[in-house]
């Protein structure tokens, strides 16, 4: 907990700290380097949240690394066929609904753009919050644009599109257990969809916090962390699509 | 307390070491060609690890006694370590451990890197819950087709393996519940499993290999003495794992030929 | 969640917020510890039933009746699973790590207190699901804690492989998520919340061990989760990741093309780092306690750190040594065996350094020290059977015999447990404000040391003689009959050893309420937890933030007024 002394000089706030003004002004209670961990200020909390996210993305990555290695191994696996007394390969690649996947990819990449806009919009709001009361300062109409809502809608569109892709596969007779290659298609895309849904839930929580009028700084941290998570999900999707399309 | 600790640690060390050196419980007598080299590598590892075990435990016991806190004791030595010592014991340990491994690797290579010789006695060993079956290829020298959908374990023998009666190569295959092989000749085993993973373990042959469903694993060993040797299952396979045992009978070449001829005659 | 955390919050009021859904890492640490305490008694009880059945297979036990072979195997499975996950992965890290990491680095709490609370309750849910497997139709699974497919992947492979196995996998999957949440907290806290002056190389070795353990967990549990998902799919929706073409009892299973070895690779890629997760915190505690009670700095602090880092790194490259007999390529086996021998080197370095710490020390023999000394002895014994198993040629006669449980029980089942005991006796005064009874502790120590050696050293002899693992009785193979005598001795030793743990249990609870009051620093130790009140206040340091000037083990510094210099004392001339 911080102990207050009455004679701390208040440094002038600057919005040029960090790139493009997306770090809040320093108002004491911690420097940019090693803040007093007893009373983490907003900058330290943001940094800690980002560090936590970077750490959290590691096991998610490992999950998909494990699925990938299972995929590669299974493709090449010879199995003993007793009816011919020989060793055979039984991998038959399934035809993917490529066009649908590409459309979904565009939707997801677009949502990455919108969430990045949301992230920066919120960062600017936080940076300018202290000076809002000065007459003549206006944050403009950009403040009102619902980037967050747009991202949620696009995310849901992506999930709907994935559902269509699975229906397409099912209509052609490829279910989860039909064969090894179809198992992996559902597994990889399904696991990704589950994680993306988690991201949507986080965005909804951020949206709810707007309605409940939570502090701007806290909202900013949630959206910032979710935005990086979202970008990771987009990159992961591109990786999965490339794996399914090219490593057949 | 220092003295008590020394006594307890040293006693535990001596007791453990005694039973190892006395070989009160030890490997069963080895009767295969790989026994000599394998047992020798074990002995080398055993002596080296044994020396380290005794030395480390004795040192531990001695130190806690010698450096116990007492009014006449010297102040503890304010030392953060010794880089030279660290380097020395790191390098020595690395040389010892990796050297030991490299020393034993020719044995592994001899056992596993080469396939069986051409004139080995071929036996297909099939594991299932909870029995071992052994199949010999018969006069045509070929193992016939066995289909999973034809398996009937309750009927035993050929039916348990699911041999396809429509395949001519299956007709002369000999299926037994006891594995009989001639002494002094390499045996090639082809390990298969129907349901779950089992493991073909013959302690006297210093031989073990998992039998995995979906695979046909080729391995070999060479029995050097006649006798009856128990086969144990060495991979958890279900409730009957403990009673899934078999028998390996090693007999003279003559006896084996007679036995096999009699079995093949039954198939006509 | 993150954004609301601020350490300016005052201590919570009300029973639920204070003791049930607490955000205080100290309370959460105790919750983990007591969960592990119940789990270890469950696990010990299961192992007693196993040992009794092994030598008296036809015995009819009160309430349980005669134990059938499948029940024995369920006991084996659940004993292993509960001990590995809910004791060894929970008490050292979730228990002591949670309680003492923030304090030892000078922080007021973990980085994400809400996540911390959730990680405990998720572990609790996993525990309940695991225990539920005993009570469903078919009972608990019988496929061993390693759960090899196809035995674990086919519902018809045996009793308990139905719903019981599904619950087992589900519990493990939930546990994976709980562990990952915990690992996140440990890593972020260690990197981001150290007090001024607490550089990484001034952290106590306990903090290093928790940090490295968390990194191992972060990388390994995701892979276990993936394996569990694939297994659930094979079991329930007809996929064939692990299942080849096969039959059970003559009936086609309906699967084809999968690989049982794929399960083993995925499982052991997790499973080997897991055993280092189980032992590293114990190594950290051993270093901490040995140094404190030797009144000497730890010998070779930097080497100890590098050794733990090497163990962590190499731990990811050796998993194939569990698979030498599996049908894996023998060339791959050779590569894994070289890496496995290599990992023995940092372990040896640590042992030499512990001995170096005791050399020219002034040793005090209070209870934590007894267990730390025991840890070293047991680690030596258990570790030295490793080089036998690491050589594939020698693994041929030894794999899946009693030699293997002899090896891993001495390290995980005893040394790691001694690490937990040492930590308990060491930190009990700080956690509960009272001292444990030393006389009872000594009885507990000697009975346990001699008892566990008596149970687990003979397993090596049995392994040499060829006794296979996981046999529910030794009556069927003639060459096993002569081994029943030694097995009987081991069973009696086990009964006595388990009974001796009741002394510890009594000491623990009695001392919590009736033990003599403890001072803030009863062991005259140097690390930050001993600078604060006993028990520590809600924010750990009562409003002040520590500043660190010294290394963690500044004992017997020449020229200093006392034989110990605390980390927050003014800098000494020869500071580390």
Radius of gyration of chain A: 24 Å
Tell how many strands the DSSP assignment of chain B holds.
Answer: 10
Low-confidence stretches of chain B: none
Task: Using the alpha-carbon principal axes, give the shape of chain B.
Answer: elongated
Question: Structural class from helices and strands of chain A?
Answer: mainly alpha
CATH superfamily of chain A: Cytochrome c oxidase, subunit III, four-helix bundle
Indicate how many domains the architecture of chain A comprises: 1
Query: Shape of chain A, please?
Result: elongated
What's the helix count of chain A? 5
- Structural category of chain B: alpha+beta
Give the helices and strands of chain B as they follow along the chain.
Answer: HHHEEHHEEEEEEEEH
CATH architecture assignment of the largest domain in chain B = Sandwich
What is the mean pLDDT of chain A? 82
CATH topology of chain A: Four Helix Bundle (Hemerythrin (Met), subunit A)
Report the biggest beta sheet of chain A as strand number plus sense, adding barrel if it closes: 2 strands, antiparallel
Total helices of chain B: the number is: 6
The amount of beta strand of chain A, in percent, is under 5%
Strand neighbour order, sheet with most strands of chain B: 3-2-1-5-8
Tell me how many strands of chain A there are: 2
Q: What is the distance, rounded to the nearest whole angstrom, between the alpha carbons of the first and last residues of chain A?
A: 57 Å
Largest interface: B-C, 100 and 117 residues
Give an account of the 3D structure:
The complex is a heterotrimer of chains A (248), B (268) and C (576). Chain A contains five helices and two strands. Chain A has 248 residues and is mostly helical. Chain A has one domain: Four Helix Bundle (Hemerythrin (Met), subunit A). Chain A has a two-stranded antiparallel ribbon. In chain A, a hairpin with a 4-residue loop joins β1 and β2. In chain A, 36% of the residues are buried. The N terminus of chain A is likely disordered. With 268 residues, chain B is α+β, with helices and mostly antiparallel strands. Chain B folds into two domains: 97 residues, no CATH class; 146 residues, Immunoglobulin-like, CATH 2.60.40.420. Chain B has six helices and ten strands, in the order αααββααββββββββα. In chain B, the strands form two sheets. In chain B, strands 3-2-1-5-8 form a five-stranded mixed beta sheet. In chain B, strands 4-10-9-6-7 form a five-stranded mixed beta sheet, covered by helices on one side. Chain B starts with a helix and ends with a helix. The model of chain B has no long low-confidence stretch (mean pLDDT 94). In chain C, the strands form two sheets. Chain C has a two-stranded antiparallel sheet with strand order 1-2. In chain C, strands 3-4 form a two-stranded antiparallel sheet. Chain C is built from 16 helices and four strands. Chain C is globular. The longest helix of chain C is centred in the middle third of the chain and has 35 residues. Chains B and C meet through α1, α2, α3, β7 and β9 of B and α3, β3, α8, α9 and α10 of C.
């Amino acid at each position: 907990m911080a102990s207050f002394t009455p004679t701390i000089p208040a440094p002038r706030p600057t919005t040029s700290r960090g790139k493009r003004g997306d770090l809040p002004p320093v108002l004491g209670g911690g420097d940019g380097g090693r803040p007093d961990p007893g009373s983490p200020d907003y900058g330290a909390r943001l940094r800690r949240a980002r560090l936590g996210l970077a750490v959290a993305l590691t096991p998610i990555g490992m999950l998909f690394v494990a699925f990938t290695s299972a995929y590669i191994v299974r493709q090449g696996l010879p199995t003993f066929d007793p009816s011919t007394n020989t060793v055979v390969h039984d991998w038959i690649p399934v035809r993917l609904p490529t066009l649908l996947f590409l459309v979904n990819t565009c939707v997801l990449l677009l949502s990455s753009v919108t969430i990045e806009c949301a992230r920066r919009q919120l960062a600017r709001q936080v940076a300018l919050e202290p000076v809002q009361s000065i007459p003549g300062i206006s944050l403009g109409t950009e403040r009102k644009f619902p980037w967050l809502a747009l991202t949620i809608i696009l995310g849901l569109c992506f999930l709907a599109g994935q559902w269509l892709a699975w229906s397409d596969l099912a209509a052609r007779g490829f279910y989860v257990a039909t064969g090894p290659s179809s198992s992996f298609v559902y597994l990889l895309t399904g696991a990704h969809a589950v994680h993306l849904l988690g991201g949507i839930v986080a965005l909804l929580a951020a949206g709810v916090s707007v309605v409940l009028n939570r502090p701007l700084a806290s909202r900013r941290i949630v959206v910032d962390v979710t935005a990086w998570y979202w970008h990771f999900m987009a990159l992961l999707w591109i990786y999965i699509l490339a794996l399914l399309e090219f490593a057949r | 307390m220092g003295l008590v600790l020394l006594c307890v640690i040293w006693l535990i060390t001596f007791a453990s070491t005694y039973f190892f050196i006395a070989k009160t419980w030890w490997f069963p007598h080895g009767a295969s060609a790989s026994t000599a080299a394998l047992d020798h590598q074990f002995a080398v590892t055993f002596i080296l690890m044994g020396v380290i075990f005794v030395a480390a435990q004795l040192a531990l016991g001695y130190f806690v006694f010698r450096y116990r806190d007492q009014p006449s004791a010297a102040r503890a030595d304010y030392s953060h370590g010794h880089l030279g010592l660290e380097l020395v014991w790191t390098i020595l340990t690395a040389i010892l451990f990796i050297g030991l491994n490299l020393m034993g690797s020719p044995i592994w290579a001899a056992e596993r890197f080469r396939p069986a010789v051409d004139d080995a006695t071929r036996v297909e060993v099939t594991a299932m819950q909870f029995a071992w079956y052994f199949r010999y290829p018969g006069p045509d020298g070929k193992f016939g087709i066995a289909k999973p959908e034809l398996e009937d374990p309750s009927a035993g023998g050929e039916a348990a393996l699911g041999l396809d009666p429509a395949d001519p190569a299956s007709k002369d295959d000999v299926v037994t519940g006891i594995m009989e092989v001639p002494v002094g000749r390499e045996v090639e085993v082809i390990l298969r499993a129907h349901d779950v993973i089992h493991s073909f373990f013959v302690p006297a042959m210093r031989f073990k290999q998992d039998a995995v469903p979906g695979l046909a694993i080729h391995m070999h060993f060479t029995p050097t003495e006649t006798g009856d040797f128990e086969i144990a299952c060495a991979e958890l396979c279900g409730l009957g794992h403990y009673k899934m045992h078999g028998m390996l009978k090693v007999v003279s070449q003559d006896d084996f030929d007679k036995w096999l001829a009699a079995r093949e005659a039954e198939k006509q | 969640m993150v954004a609301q955390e601020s350490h300016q919050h005052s201590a919570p009021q009300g029973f639920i917020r204070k003791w049930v859904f607490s955000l205080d890492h100290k309370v959460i640490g105790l919750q983990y510890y007591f969960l592990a305490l119940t789990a270890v008694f469950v696990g010990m009880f299961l192992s007693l039933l196993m040992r009794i059945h092994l030598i008296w297979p036809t015995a009819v036990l009160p309430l349980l009746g005669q134990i059938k072979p499948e029940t024995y195997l369920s006991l084996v499975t659940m004993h292993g699973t509960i001990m590995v996950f809910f004791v060894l992965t929970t008490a050292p890290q979730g228990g002591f790590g949670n309680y003492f990491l923030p304090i030892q680095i000078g922080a007021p709490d973990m980085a994400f207190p809400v996540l911390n609370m959730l990680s405990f309750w998720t572990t609790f849910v996993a525990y309940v699901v695991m225990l539920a497997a005993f009570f469903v139709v078919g009972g608990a699974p019988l496929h061993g804690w390693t759960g090899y497919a196809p035995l674990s992947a086919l519902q018809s492979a045996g009793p308990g492989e139905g719903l019981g196995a599904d619950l087992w996998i589900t519990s493990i999957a939930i546990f994976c998520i709980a562990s990952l949440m915990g690992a996140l907290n440990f890593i972020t806290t260690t990197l981001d919340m150290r007090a001024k002056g607490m550089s990484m190389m001034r952290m106590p070795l306990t903090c290093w061990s928790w940090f490295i353990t968390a990194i191992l967990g972060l990388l390994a549990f995701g892979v276990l989760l993936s394996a569990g998902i694939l297994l659930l799919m094979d079991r329930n929706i007809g996929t064939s990741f692990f299942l080849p073409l096969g039959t059970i009892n003559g009936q086609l299973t309906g699967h084809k093309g999968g690989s049982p070895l794929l399960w083993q690779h995925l499982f052991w890629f997790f499973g080997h780092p897991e055993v280092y997760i189980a032992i590293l915190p114990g190594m950290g505690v051993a270093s901490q306690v040995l140094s404190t009670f030797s009144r000497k700095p730890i010998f070779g602090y930097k080497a100890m750190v590098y050794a733990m880092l090497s163990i962590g790194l190499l731990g990811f490259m050796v998993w194939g040594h569990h698979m030498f007999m599996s049908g894996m390529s023998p060339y791959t086996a050779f590569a894994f065996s070289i890496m496995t021998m290599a990992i023995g080197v940092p372990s040896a370095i640590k042992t030499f350094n512990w001995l170096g710490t005791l050399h020219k020390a002034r040793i005090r023999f209070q209870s934590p020290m007894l267990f730390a000394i025991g840890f070293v002895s047991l680690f030596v014994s258990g570790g030295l059977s490793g080089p036998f198993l690491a050589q594939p040629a020698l693994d041929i006669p030894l794999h899946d015999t009693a030699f293997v449980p002899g090896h891993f029980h001495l390290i995980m089942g005893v040394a790691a447990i001694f690490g937990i005991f040492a930590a308990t006796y060491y930190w009990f005064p700080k956690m509960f404000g009272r001292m444990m009874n030393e006389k009872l502790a000594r009885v507990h120590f000697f009975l346990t040391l001699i008892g566990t050696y008596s149970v687990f050293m003979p397993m090596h002899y049995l392994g040499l003689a060829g006794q296979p693992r996981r046999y529910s009785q030794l009556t069927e193979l003639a060459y096993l009959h002569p081994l029943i005598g030694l097995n009987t001795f081991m069973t009696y030793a086990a009964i006595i050893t388990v009974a001796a743990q009741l002394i510890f249990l009594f000491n623990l609870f009695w001392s919590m309420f009736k033990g003599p009051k403890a001072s803030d620093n009863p062991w005259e130790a140097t690390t930050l937890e001993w600078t604060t009140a006993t028990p520590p206040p809600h924010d750990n340091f009562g409003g002040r933030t520590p500043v660190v000037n010294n290394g963690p083990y500044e004992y017997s510094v020449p020229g200093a007024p006392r034989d110990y210099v605390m980390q927050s004392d003014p800098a000494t001339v020869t500071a580390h």
